[in-house]
Amino acid sequence: MKKAAAAGVAVALSLAAAGCGSGSGSDKSVVTLWMYPVISDQAKNLAFWGKVEKDFEARNPAIDVKIDQQPWEGRQEKVTTALVSKKGFDLVVLVPDQLPQYAQQGTIEAVDDVVAPDKAAYMPNALTALTVDGKLYGVPIYQTITAPIYNKKLFAEAGVDKVPQTLAELKEAAPKLAAKKVAVLDYPGKPEISLNQSFYPILWANGGSVFAADGKSVAFNGPEGVASLQLLLDLKAVGGLPENTASKGNDIEGGALASGKTAMYHAATALQADQLGAAIGAENVGIGLPLEGSKRVAFGIAGGLVLARHSENKDAAKKFAAYVASPQVAAELAKESGFFPARTDVTVPGQTESSKEFAKSLQYAFPGDTHPKARQVMGVLAPHIQAALLGKEDAKTALDAAAKEADQLLGSGG
What we know:
By secondary structure, the chain is an alpha/beta fold. It folds into two domains: 5-145 and 300-359, Periplasmic binding protein-like II (D-Maltodextrin-Binding Protein, domain 2); 147-299 and 373-412, Periplasmic binding protein-like II (D-Maltodextrin-Binding Protein, domain 2, 3-Layer(aba) Sandwich). The protein has 16 helices and 14 strands. Helix 2 links the parallel strand 1 (29-35) and strand 2. The longest helix is centred in the N-terminal third of the chain and has 18 residues, at 42-59.
């Protein structure tokens, strides 16, 4: 099939009206994939997926693939609408916290059979992350990971010979750096920043969780949660957090870490490591394993190809999903996106040294506490953490107040 790379959005609009897998006027099976800019460079993104489409169709002439480039903005609403109206796509890229609600609604199809032939080659935590109630709902095509990045020079100048590898060591190093007017932790307390890249990694490291095991209530106000927030308050008290920590974001460029006012960010991406290197010199950037409390946990999500239950060409869609997840395509996707393969049998061409360091944390990847209301609960909790950082609430009071609101939300059924 010939198609200009930039025509994806137009195709998306036409298919939204016509539905997917029908009305093509040919004997071919039409498979529509809603793809998002996991490759941030637009030209590279279009070129990559254009080649994937062309190569797959050359191997499978009876299948007509349409890859529609969609924006991140409004993704949840658009996907939900498409699934409810039963039109728009056959396959869509989703992440773990989006799956439970669609699985409960019965609008997506299990895809265990797609990965079955190569199941041993997939990263176990990627498969687990995309599984709901024992069924796999996403074919993993990439894996993200976060890890600590730090300014080696600042630690050395403060006389800290060993960069913190545990939460206890982080607390111990704080006064030494504060004496040099440097905050040890570049903590982003702005409520708009995902707690997956601020508070939750500390909670998980301390053995805590966001939700109770039955999912009917929250657990973040338990002893582990209180200890985690108290750690932040203790750091703040000794100058271990930026003065504006309650309202700061996690931008590296133009931020405190790049200007030498903070020494470490505990939940950074590989791209942020590169940005820090550009600001302070790559030779001064260190990349560590997740900070350890009672265990090591790194926030990282698997992106999976999810099959709409309403698809009229499920076999063709599954065949295409398997192709995108194959080692050769996964390797090139990792190269172009900067993310990581969700398989262990993939060698990424030209992988940078910083990416190799981040890859060491993949074994600790955790997608967060998946729950249909996970994002809503995050929105309830974040302002209370901010209030504690502002000195308006103590750790226990802040988390108990947030838990009361969150439990009402979980019990509302809405």
